[in-house]
Amino acid sequence: MKSTINAKDVAKLAGVSQSSVSRVYFEGAKVSKKTRQKVLAAAEELGYRPNEFARSLITNRTKIIGLVMKGVQNPFYPQVLTQFTASFKKFGYSILFVHTNSDEIQTEDIETLLNYNVAGVVITDATMSLNVAESFRANQIPLVFFNRKLSRSNFYSVCCNNLSAGRAIAEYLIAKGSKDMAYISGNENTSTSQEREEGFSEVVTQHNLNFKKYSSDYTYEGGYKTALAIMEEEALPSAFFVANDIMALGVMDALRKKEIQVPAQVKVIGFDNIGMSSWPAYELTTWEQPIEKMVEETVTYLLAEMIDYTGTAEAVEVDGVFIERKTT
Known about the structure:
It is a single chain. The chain is of the alpha/beta class. It folds into 3 domains: about 45 residues, lambda repressor-like DNA-binding domains (434 Repressor (Amino-terminal Domain)); about 120 residues, Rossmann fold, CATH 3.40.50; about 130 residues, Rossmann fold, CATH 3.40.50. It is about 45% helix and about 15% strand. The protein is built from 12 helices and 12 strands. The strands form 3 sheets. A 6-stranded parallel sheet has the order 2-1-3-4-5-11, sandwiched between helices. A 4-stranded parallel sheet has the order 7-6-8-9, with helices on both faces. Helix 9 links the parallel strand 6 and strand 7. Helix 1 crosses helix 2. The termini are far apart.
């Protein structure tokens, strides 16, 4: 008995040509309804599965979406990966996960994506030079920046509306009586941190108040160490706005270590609404990024572009939701 069933076996059982079998499994190929039914019935009986790799050699495209991610230690991004995997699976696509060790995507990461003939690419928390991004456009591979933007709007991006979120958080803290506030940023070259700060700063300035900015790196350790350094300076603010939740949890643990009461002595607000933020040990007030809607926007765009590539450039922004808990 043969260990591997191939298209020739299916064709023989179905009573059709091998090329007819191939046409059934190639999107857009013309084949009669009767032939399709015969081929699929034979394939099911034999347990045949088409060779996706062989198909990709002919079409120069696979059913693979490349997803590039750096911050796997931030719980927000594994959650994003899970959502993308489930969403693309519904349409028959698999995820090729590429973990980059640098803030900017490296040449070997690009080569991996191109070598696999990916159908589309999603870039999450990494940056990319314009020249590198253009290599995808040259190959007509649709590209989306997720939760990030390039400095120039040459490519499609999907983000939370960080500017309006920063404004709303500032208004909330001021209404709560906070005057001397602090903003702990993530990596300063990221559009997300820049826009959150811009919106926050805009409202604080309008109220003739000031805030201090402290730079960190979007990690728990970064938030923890930054908060300890602030307290060592005896510069404890009345409120912290922290650029993401995982840093905010680090800030809270640093405050606990110094026996600072939250929210009685200082308020803390994060950003993302990761699962840990609702844990009883934290109950962090935060801004929820609408991951489901952001993923939906990304998937819809990529599916359309993979059918008819246009290279459309647009910055899509999705409104998030303020989540009030016990840290404010």
